[in-house]
Write a structure and sequence with these properties.
single chain; alpha/beta; Rossmann fold; eight-stranded mixed beta sheet
Length: 293
């Protein structure tokens, strides 16, 4: 199932529901873990927007890490609504667990972040129409080159422990980026986590695509966490088994599970955010990084 198809279902959520969730722009009490992450950001974390040369343009990103020491690096690939406050909060929360986290702008080749304030802004202001040309620039080759540049930048940072592997996690559109990143720099990227990622198994535009993520797994040295939305699984029920078989054939550790949340359930400004299942997925993410990095 492709990203735009998955998000078309989400776009039918009512304006009232978006309004209720709009509090996440400030990441307040409705999303306690993210509010805590923001509070921690004022104390034991260091954060700033950064920019550096990358293929096709200048990457702008949010970098957050513990204020002292060296820590394993993690790349966070956002969903279709891009780098925004909700993703920064996710980065802060992960950094508070002892990681140097770079939340990248997946559309840097087209324009700087933020492209949208939150997911409601994406839905209400022509997000689907706007992102089409930006997404078209995220070909396999381009994502691969970007991943190499991001890893190289991270390895130059004083807060990054280069003796540890790099993790990367992606949401929706960013899910397949995690496999591409692990294949692009296999000697450094040791963990890949996809949350309700689209296009991991098939490329509708090119059924014979040799670079579909499932075919890249043998090129990696990573452990995988692939968390699948229940409605995505309902539409493509064989994909989880195909992914399990591919990981097993490649000899790569992989935890692949269908969660009881709809596409987008892990993202705090998503209209289908499911706190209980999001917290369970977050716990599995921390376990992946603890064991693989």
């Amino acid at each position: 199932m492709c990203e735009l198809d998955q998000l078309s279902d989400m776009s039918r959520v009512s304006r009232r529901q978006f309004g209720t969730l709009g509090a996440v722009a400030g990441l307040g009490a409705a999303f306690t873990p993210w509010a805590v992450a923001n509070a921690q950001g004022a104390g034991g974390l260091t954060e700033n927007m950064v920019s550096f040369a990358a293929p096709g343009g200048t990457m702008d990103a949010f970098f957050v890490h513990p204020s002292s020491g060296k820590h394993p690096a993690v790349i966070l690939w956002p969903d279709i609504a891009g780098l925004r406050d909700a993703k920064k909060a996710m980065g802060r929360r992960l950094a508070s667990s002892g990681y140097s986290v770079l939340v990248v702008n997946p559309f840097y080749r087209s324009l700087p972040a933020p492209q949208f304030k939150d997911f409601a802004d994406f839905r209400d202001n022509g997000g689907f129409q706007k992102v089409g040309p930006w997404m078209a620039r995220n070909s396999h080759e381009n994502v691969t080159e970007t991943a190499k540049a991001v890893v190289a930048w991270l390895d130059q940072q004083a807060s990054v422990d280069t003796s540890k592997g790099i993790g990367n996690q992606g949401y929706c559109m960013g899910g397949p980026f995690t496999v591409r990143t692990a294949a692009a720099v296999p000697g450094r990227v040791k963990a890949a986590a996809s949350f309700h990622g689209g296009g991991l198994v098939t490329n509708r535009a090119d059924p014979n695509d040799p670079n579909v993520p499932i075919k890249l797994i043998p090129q990696t040295q990573a452990s995988f966490l692939i968390a699948i939305a229940k409605n995505d699984d309902a539409q493509a029920p064989t994909e989880k088994d195909e992914l399990k078989a591919a990981a097993q054939a490649a000899g790569r550790p992989a935890e692949i599970e269908v969660y009881q949340g709809d596409h987008g359930w892990t993202v705090p400004d998503s209209p289908v955010y499911n706190e209980a299942e999001a917290e369970r997925a977050w716990g599995r993410l921390l376990n992946l990084y603890k064991t693989a990095l």
